[in-house]
Amino acid sequence: MNTSPLTVDAKTSRPVRAQSWPWWQATPGYQRRNLRWNPFGEAPLRELGEMAIVEEGALDVAPFQPLQIMAPAGHGKTTHLLALQARHRGAIYEYVPVEGRDFRTRPTSMQLFLLDEAQRVNRRQLRRLFASQSLLALGTHTDLQPYCRHPLRTLRIEALSLAKLRAIVSARLSWARADPGRPVPTIDDSRLSLLLQSHAANLRAILEALYDWFQHVEM
């Protein structure tokens, strides 16, 4: 059987499907439910940005009004940045690895630059970036205002509602749908509520729990 190539996600070290499998190559359990694969596995970054559920106000970026998206790990910083990339033509996304102290991308002054885990970058580079880049959004664990001469617009991700989680789950199921004309499974609110009680706003942990549960059900 031919399968689509897999790459490794730099953030989670989990395999990422590089392209969609034809629906008939899925396991019988997924085929019965009109799915191509586990809906809660790692998605290619482009597809993750396209199906992201974020508040539209968070996607407004203006020249010389940098946006910093602050949240603990797993709460949606990357998702918001990828949503910005999906909605702004020519935007460039870069993730700074754990031991990184710099970024490699050199965008033009009018390109939207999306820098993930920006708190890892050395302070001199941060100051230079803020001074030279007119369109900028950063994902960070700490407040970067001390390194920017312009007022930073800050989006703090602190909560995850049941309604938003329901929409995220629905988007994931639609992403994995094999036949657009047939329905896909649903996940009841009681299960989602239990996940919120267990993991609060940690969306990554919730999706991992759904992945494991779905894998067990299907396999």
Report on this structure:
It is a single chain. This protein is of the alpha/beta class. The protein folds into two domains: 27-41 and 160-218, no CATH class; 50-156, Rossmann fold (3-Layer(aba) Sandwich), CATH 3.40.50.300. It has seven helices and seven strands; from the N terminus they run E-E-H-H-E-H-E-E-H-E-E-H-H-H. It has helices spanning 28-32, 45-50, 77-87, 123-132, 162-175, 189-199, 203-218; strands at 6-8, 15-17, 67-70, 92-95, 113-116, 136-140, 153-156. Strands 4-5-6-3-7 form a five-stranded parallel β-sheet, covered by helices on one side. Residues 1-8 and 12-25 have low confidence and may be disordered.
Short structural summary:
The chain is α/β, with parallel strands linked by helices and 219 residues long.
